[in-house]
Amino acid sequence: MPPRISNEAEPAEVPAAPRPALRVAVLADSDTRWKWGALTARRLTAGPDGRGARPVEISGLLLRGRATPTPRQLAEVGEVGIAADRVREVTAVEFLHTVRAEAYDVLVLALVGGGVQAMLHGLAALDLPRRPVVVTGYVGVVYEKLADGLLLRHGADVVLANSRHDAERFRAVYEGVGADASAVTEAALPFLGGAPHRPENGRDTVVFAAQPSVPASRADRAYLLRRLVEHARLHPRREVLLKLRSRPGEHTTHVEELPYQRLAQRLPGVPPPNFRLVYGHMGEVLDRTDLLVTVSSTAALESLHRRIPTAVLTDLGVREALGNHHFVGSGLLTSWDRLDGGHRPRPDGAWLAGQGVAADGSYATAYDTARARVAALLDEDRLPPPAPYYTPATAPGYLPGILARHHLAPDGTPAARAAAPQEPGRVRGAVRETVRNAARGAYRHGVQRVAPVIRRMGEL
Predict the structure, then answer these.
(1) How far apart are CA 79 and CA 97, in angstroms?
(2) Could you identify which of 28, 53, 274, 275 might form a hypothetical disulfide with 110, taking C-beta atoms 3.0 to 4.6 angstroms apart as the criterion?
(3) 165 phi-psi bin (left φ>0, alpha ψ -120 to 50, beta other)
(4) φ and ψ of 293, to 5 deg
(5) Is it the case that residue 54 has pLDDT exceeding 90?
(6) pLDDT at residue 103 greater than cutoff 70
(7) What is the pLDDT of residue 360?
(8) What pLDDT sits at residue 371?
């Protein structure tokens, strides 16, 4: 029999409904942590090609405190793809109320360890029917307070390690105290990138990457500045730049009580014309750098990723307090005397491979494992409350103080005097916000300007 021919039209294929946007919030307490958190959120929610399987909405929340970023600092950390109108300042209690109201899918806690611990206990106390996946980590090289910082971050679903070396150390700490180490996930610093170094005819630029708190003493900082200026005088055809993190009065992740800008004003004589101070995005400075010099800045890893010649100074010793002990075995340790004479350190390949620098081209896949872990957690019907290592039972003399600094009770709930205010109306709400801003400004002035002066006077 001939095949039957139907006059009925084939049913049209119904397109799949678009997936709702993934809602991500980044909570940060300084300019560098904001940069780390925002870029980490981007890398966790996008594939290696920069695109994700579903749209993403990222909101920025800045934890109010000593180092809350200023608008200028936010503008200078580079383009992170988050509109300014989606960034606002909050207290810890306001953050927790926001999490309850907004139903985020992912939280990136870009905070100091105590802040992470407080937010984890606060989130556990919320007891949400569907809580967000919580991600945290470190903004750079971990060279001090390894156990303390790690245990304060325990309880997050994902604790990012910036290298294989860090991942091994992190797991060893957690397992050593009997804590679950499954959250430790190897990735890389999220802000590595840029074009590989290519020398240009007529360009010879040396950049010293300054740090806010390393070294700490006036004498040591004045010494480094003097040597940098002397290097400029010795090489008049070389451009010598002092790359600064912040302007006087602004704070970053660490307190800077002796800004290089002020020390430079006290230099004897006139600095040579080929020496100058620069600000701005580190990536843009590295675009024209032919030698990066530092004591222990994370900028060294950015520089190495781009195959820029990099030097880590030993002039003040190789000490844990300076952080340059992290570079033992790197081949980068050297002194100003040798740099003045033309020496250029060559990095050790095995050391680079363990540090997440990814100069070999593997950076595109550095976040694959972390993305897969976050995706698997998002597919869970219900995540259990965060379970940090520190509890009122395991650390009764330590944990309550950490929570109290963020106006949380020992059980993680807001302290009685820290309840979220209810704005009674537009006018009264505006007045209250004006008063808050004034108080906030006075607080920052006291912490950032007055307190350092008092401390210096006490040392006289």
Answers:
(1) 28
(2) 28
(3) alpha
(4) -120, 140
(5) no
(6) yes
(7) 73
(8) 96
Tell me what pLDDT residue 418 has: 60
Q: How many CB atoms lie within 10 A of CB 456?
A: 12
Q: Are strands 291-294 and 205-209 parallel, antiparallel or unpaired?
A: parallel
pTM for the full predicted model: 0.83
Q: Among residues 166, 114, 149, 124, which one has the least CA distance to residue 387?
A: 124
Q: CA–CA separation, 457 vs 449, rounded Å? A: 13
pLDDT in tens, 119-161: 999 999 999 999 999 999 999 888 889 999 999 999 999 999 9
Strand partners of residue 25: 59, 107
Task: Convert the pLDDT of each residue in 275-317 to its tens digit.
Answer: 999 988 889 999 999 999 999 999 999 999 999 999 999 999 9
Query: How many CB atoms sit inside 10 A of residue 337's CB?
Result: 10
Residues β-bridged to residue 24 = 58, 106
Q: Which two tokens stand for residue 9?
A: 């039209």
Residue 32: pLDDT band (50, 70, 90) is confident
Report the alpha-carbon angle 56-87-187, nearest 5: 55
Dist. CA 335–CA 315, nearest whole Å: 5
For residue 363, name the pLDDT band (cuts at 50, 70, 90): confident
Mean pLDDT of 343-362: 88
CA-closest candidate to residue 96, choices 131, 136, 56, 44: 131
Residue in 19, 111, 20 with CA at minimum distance from that of residue 62: 111
Per-residue pLDDT at 331: 97
d(CA 246, CA 147): 29
- Give the model's pLDDT for residue 455: 43
Token pair of 235 as six digits = 């090489």
